[in-house]
Amino acid sequence: MTAQQAIAPPCAPPGSPGDVTPTSGVIHVNARHTSGFTVIGNHLAQHGDLSLLAIGLAVHIQSLPEGAKIGVKVLAARFPESEMRIAAALRELEEAGYLRRIRVRLRDGRVRTRTESHNRPYATPLAPPEPYTAPRATTPPPAEPDDRTAAPAPPPRRPQPAPWPLPRPAIPTNALHRTAALLLADLRRHAPVLTLSEADIATLTPGVAAWLERDAHPDAIRRALTADLPAPLAHPARLLRHRITALLPPPLPAPSAPPTVIPLQNCDDCNRAFRAPEPGACRDCRNAQP
After folding, report:
1. Is 26 inside any structural domain?
2. What are the residues whose beta carbons fall under 8 Å from the beta carbon of 251, sequence distance 6 or more?
3. Of 97, 117, 137, which closes a domain?
4. Above 50 in pLDDT, residue 1?
5. How many domains, the chain?
6. Domain presence at residue 57
7. Of 46, 116, 56, whose CA–CA distance to 80 is shortest?
8. Which of 19-23, 120-124, 276-280 is least confident?
9. Is there a domain that residue 22 lies in?
10. 76 domain residue, yes or no
11. What is the pLDDT of residue 36?
């Protein structure tokens, strides 16, 4: 007799009756972490409005120790994304409430910016406390509170930081405001989502005029206001106000005066050259005179 040959692969073994493994989609293979892990809420990992870069950046920031540097240049040196994309992702997290920058004044009078990373949006109200459940009849009821005992005062709520004021030019002129208003009205040609009303343009015009007063080129202003826009963008005027305020460039330094050059003079006595503001005798000849 000839040997029996298999003409089809064997069937996969049937699953157990309690097997709930899906037939398609992602299958999680989880291992329990005992050290070196960070707890991330689904409200961040599955956020519907944040970009994937912003979500990943928030997870990285929340995994860092206290006091770690999270500046744009530090993050750009750590990841392959550009400084502009990282700055836009940080603004997304700030608008969503996962990141907050607070300006604090030190004891010596200097002002520093402190960055807070929130594992849940700081503007989201906390969950309400669970309702009180009366004890069972087998336990004695709690004693009635004495009217003379004052209830503890609730902890004070942390005040929300006020938004930074919109910058304004030091010397406002009609030419600056006219150029700034035209630049804001022209943004919709480069980004249709930045279609502003006349009231919004009138409100934001002083801020753009402050950029122009500091010798910022209109093309540079346009790129700063239209780069890496979040999608969807619900409040374009609010986003532009934040960018105009947070990305304001510093004033250009004043040109330094040229150094003073003392001219050369010929000594009236020895005819030797020396430097002095006016003609006369050199130092040696002056010292030799009685």
Report:
1. no
2. 214
3. 117
4. no
5. 2
6. yes
7. 56
8. 19-23
9. no
10. yes
11. 84
The angle formed by the CA atoms of residues 131, 129 and 126, to the nearest 5 degrees, is: 155
- Last residue of one domain, picked from the residues 246, 261, 277: 246
pLDDT 10s digits, 251-275: 888 777 777 888 888 888 888 888 8
Provide the CATH number for the domain around residue 105.
1.10.10
pTM, two decimal places: 0.38
Torsion angle in degrees (nearest 10) through CA of 176, 181, 182, 187: 130
More confidently predicted of 221 and 156: 221
Q: Within 13 Å and on the Cβ side, how many CA atoms surround 254?
A: 3
Average pLDDT of the chain is 81
CA distance 81 to 73: 11
The structure tokens listed for 62 are 């929340």
Domain that holds residue 195: 174-246
For residue 50, the 8-state DSSP code is S
Residue 139 confidence (pLDDT): 54
Angle at 225 between CA 224 and CA 229, to 5 degrees: 105
